[in-house]
């Protein structure tokens, strides 16, 4: 590579929703930008997760870019919750429309990023052998990027098809006439099971922990609904910014404690029936205290438990599918299409992998700890991710004075606003730990972060300085505050990937800001308008 081809104002790592908008925004601000993407296509999460049934759990009218009125008017979603291929098409359409591809390097997996203090620049290397330089580095690496390795022995012994949902083959998998195992019942497993069951000869679902799931009420896009949104997009997007999760989901204004049990029941039922924005995370907005008041949360949890009992015909299976030891919202609430109904099919069996864990794969299937064996043609792993921090820690990131990110985060992640790291000057995170991220509309939160980062880089340039570094105190104070916002809720009481509880050995640390997206936006705006006073410029 020639010098000019490897020296940039900004390197952005990742070409998903975040990296693409960062490229557009920073390039429009006049900076030279290179995006490095590990995959051989753009789309990030939506590039990798191509498993059957994959779709977003926030309505597509909202789970989409808001920065361009032209884009939001031009694009038409075909369903309320778009399926993965359509989201990926949308991302590709945006990339073409904004002519983004020329600045994106595919098949470029970042191996290391090292801050060269003397020259105030990041030296970024890729696993493919490139070295690039940049004044600033923006990590757009996604919250659910690094798949977990299963604690199952002899994965290589199995002679059938073994697939990970997050690394799904482009050409798809044919389940027709196959005996299939699906391991994992998080959002992914819950989306995949009904679709696989329709084709497979038999599907065994291995469940360790049951989750709470609500019907998505997904349907073809109603032309009137689409038109109404398009006519009111600007106002709706503005209204969404004033909510706790950057999403319009008919949030109730009352406390559940003040409502009678009958009123609560009616509200829950209405949301269960309505689907769409009232479903999934939207259900947690039925009342203002759903995650704060134990009795309200108990009622909501019990409501779903009764729905499971009413839907699943076999009482033993229904009982096994029922979450009993934690309240709704403590783990990611799921949104499904016929998940519970799937267990009424004669070709579907639920297996309790808590009571009898999966021990190993065999040549012809799998074996549980008790010695029970199952023959399979195909095994699907839907076992989750090293969320929030996995992608960042997978790279060898070194800040000032040799400080490694792995060292900086050895007791859990710390950031300032989920945007910056003390000791790692000129590096920014998008939807980093400590921001509303996965408990907000990710696309909107991405736009906020990218806008903030662009302004911050502009501030550094305008000041004539070349290094910006957030203070240690600001970082420590921010994470104390993040913990305070979580401590006021019931959410950290459950083992979830929000806490890193799904990754053996990962420090248990609540990684999402729960003070509300609108409040968060106020805080980051103030940090900027106050002249970035928590940062040192040199
Ligand atoms: P999740 O939600 O982390 O779910 C992973 C599932 O896999 C979960 O049910 C796990 O059980 C299960 N799992 C993991 N290892 C095993 C083994 N060895 N045996 C049986 N079951 C296992 O990941 P998803 O991909 O479904 O969803 C991630 C997010 O994507 C989701 O929250 C949405 O935000 C979108 P466990 O609960 O650990 O007992």
Class by alpha and beta content = alpha/beta
- Roughly how much helix do the residues carry, as a percent range? 25-40%
Q: In CATH terms, what is the fold-level topology of the largest domain?
A: FAD/NAD(P)-binding domain
Shape: globular
Number of domains: 2
Instruction: Give the averaged pLDDT, no decimals.
Output: 97
Q: Count of helices?
A: 17
Radius of gyration, rounded? 23 Å
Molecular structure report:
The mean pLDDT is about 95. The radius of gyration is 23 Å and the shape is globular. It is built from 17 helices and 20 strands. The protein is of the alpha/beta class. The chain has 2 domains: about 5-40 and about 100-145 and about 385-535, FAD/NAD(P)-binding domain; about 155-380, no CATH class. It has helices at about 5, 15-30, 45-50, 70-75, 85-95, 185-195, 225-230, 235-240, 260-275, 295-310, 315-320, 340, 390-395, 405-410, 440-465, 470-485, 515-530, and strands at about 5-15, 35, 105, 110-115, 120-125, 130-140, 160-165, 180-185, 200-205, 215, 335, 350, 360, 365-370, 375, 380, 395-400, 425-430, 470, 535. The protein starts with a helix and ends with a strand. The strands form 5 sheets. Strands 1, 2, 3, 4, 5, 6, 17 and 18 form an 8-stranded mixed sheet that branches. A 5-stranded parallel sheet has the order 7-16-8-9-12, with helices on one face. The chain is about 30% helix and about 15% strand. Ligand NA7 binds near residues 382 and 384.
């Amino acid at each position: 590579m020639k010098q000019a081809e490897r020296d940039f104002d900004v390197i952005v790592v990742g070409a998903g929703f975040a990296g693409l908008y960062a490229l557009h925004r920073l390039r429009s601000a006049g900076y030279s930008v290179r995006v490095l993407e590990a995959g051989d296509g753009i789309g990030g999460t939506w590039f990798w997760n191509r498993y059957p049934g994959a779709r977003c759990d926030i309505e597509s009218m909202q789970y989409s870019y808001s920065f361009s009125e032209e884009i939001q008017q031009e694009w038409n979603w075909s369903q309320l919750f778009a399926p993965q291929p359509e989201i990926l098409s949308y991302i590709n359409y945006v990339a073409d429309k904004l002519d983004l591809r020329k600045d994106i390097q595919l098949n470029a997996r970042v191996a290391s990023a090292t801050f060269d203090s003397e020259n105030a620049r990041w030296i970024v290397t890729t696993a493919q052998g490139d070295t690039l330089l940049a004044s600033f580095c923006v990590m757009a690496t996604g919250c659910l990027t690094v798949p977990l390795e299963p604690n199952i022995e002899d994965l290589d012994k199995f002679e059938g098809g073994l697939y990970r949902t997050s690394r799904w083959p482009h050409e798809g998998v044919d389940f027709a006439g196959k005996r299939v195992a699906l391991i994992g019942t998080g959002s992914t497993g819950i989306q995949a099971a009904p679709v696989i069951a329709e084709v497979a000869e038999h599907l065994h679902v291995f469940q360790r922990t049951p989750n709470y799931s609500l019907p998505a009420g997904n349907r073809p896009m109603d032309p009137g609904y689409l038109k109404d949104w398009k006519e009111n997009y600007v106002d709706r997007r503005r209204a969404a910014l004033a909510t706790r999760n950057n999403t319009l989901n008919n949030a109730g204004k009352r406390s559940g404690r003040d409502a009678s049990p009958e009123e609560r029941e009616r509200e829950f039922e209405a949301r269960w029936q309505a689907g769409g924005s009232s479903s999934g995370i939207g259900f947690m907005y039925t009342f203002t205290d759903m995650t704060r008041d134990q009795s309200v949360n108990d009622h909501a949890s019990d409501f779903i438990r009764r729905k499971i009992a009413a839907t699943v015909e076999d009482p033993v299976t229904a009982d096994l599918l029922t979450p009993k030891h934690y309240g709704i919202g403590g783990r990611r609430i799921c949104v499904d299409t016929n998940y519970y109904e799937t267990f009424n099919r004669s070709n579907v069996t639920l297996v309790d992998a808590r009571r009898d864990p999966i021990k190993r794969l065999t040549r012809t299937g799998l074996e549980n700890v008790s010695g029970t064996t199952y023959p399979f043609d195909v095994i699907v792993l839907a076992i989750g991710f090293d969320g929030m921090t996995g992608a960042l820690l997978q790279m060898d990131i070194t800040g000032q004075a040799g400080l490694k990110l792995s060292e900086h985060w050895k007791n859990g992640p710390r950031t300032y606003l989920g945007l910056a790291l003390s000791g790692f000057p000129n590096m920014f995170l998008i939807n980093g730990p400590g921001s509303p991220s996965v408990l907000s509309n990710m696309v909107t939160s991405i736009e906020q972060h990218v806008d903030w980062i662009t302004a911050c880089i502009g501030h550094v340039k305008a000041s004539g300085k070349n290094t910006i570094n957030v203070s240690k105190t600001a970082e420590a104070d921010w994470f104390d505050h993040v913990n305070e916002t979580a401590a006021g809720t019931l959410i950290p009481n459950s083992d979830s990937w929000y806490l890193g509880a799904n990754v053996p050995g990962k420090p248990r640390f609540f990684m999402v800001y729960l003070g509300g997206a609108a409040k968060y936006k106020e805080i980051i705006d103030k940090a900027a308008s106050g002249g970035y006073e928590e940062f040192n410029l040199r």
